[in-house]
Automatic annotation (TrEMBL):
Keywords: Lipid-binding. The lineage of its organism: Bacteria, Bacillati, Bacillota, Bacilli, Bacillales. One of its GO terms (molecular function) is lipid binding. It comes from the Bacteria. This is DegV family protein. The keyword Kinase does not apply.
Amino acid sequence: MKQRIAWITDSTAVVPDELREKYDIHVVPLDVIFEDGAYADGIQLSSSELYEKIDHSKTVPKTSQPAIGKFVELYEQLAEDYDCAIAIHLSSQLSGTYNTSKSAAAMSEFPVEFVDSQIVSYPITTLLLKGISLAEQGMDYREIAATLREEASKNENYIVIGKLSQLHKGGRLSNAQLIVGTLLQIKPIFCIRNGVVELFEKVRTEGKAFRRIMDQLDLARGIHKISQVEILHGNVMDKALELKETIKSKYQDIEVLVYPLSPVLGVHGGQGTIALTWTNEPKSS
């Protein structure tokens, strides 16, 4: 008999309402903490509301993983209707969410397989959809999780930081770095490798930064099969759509999805941030 598998993730993933309803995906929110209290990511605080609050705040808010009780309650509820579950969370190197979820499953004695996505945002959704597809083919939930752990290493991503002032406000840039960076129009490009944020390169001007990440897409395209790319943005839909058009004009066969960064990710990336991400699949022989 086909296993009844529950799917769990956290609010850093991009899970549109239609996907949640179709596949009954359970999303546990992280919190964004301002001086006036904590807000559940994506529930009590939208991406656009986040940046407005930051503009009127003296300090950048902090973020917090979900309390273990939220996961315990969820797993106890799921145990009533499902045989098992697969939980796919943001990188364990960036948040304690993965380990908290794992501890909660042990407490509830509900069989859950865990996948460390080693990433954030839409790539988590990609893993969820691949897992659901494998489940529909009748694969055992343990085998699905093992497959998804291998798939997680295929992601490639580049993040162009928006406002240096937000990094400065959050204590991640000194006064001198802010002044020099602003005067020289420096745009740092970051990437997430093996679950850790790394500086990929510093370039002058935003235009050069976008050309640089397009170079990386071109390079990857020459080696791998890439059928879809995702653009995540920090409240700059116009720039995201412009980048989409650039990609579509060059690669008509690549599907380009555009989504906002979740509020939790917006806290760390800042308004104006653009991320480009894709999965490197092997080319057919």
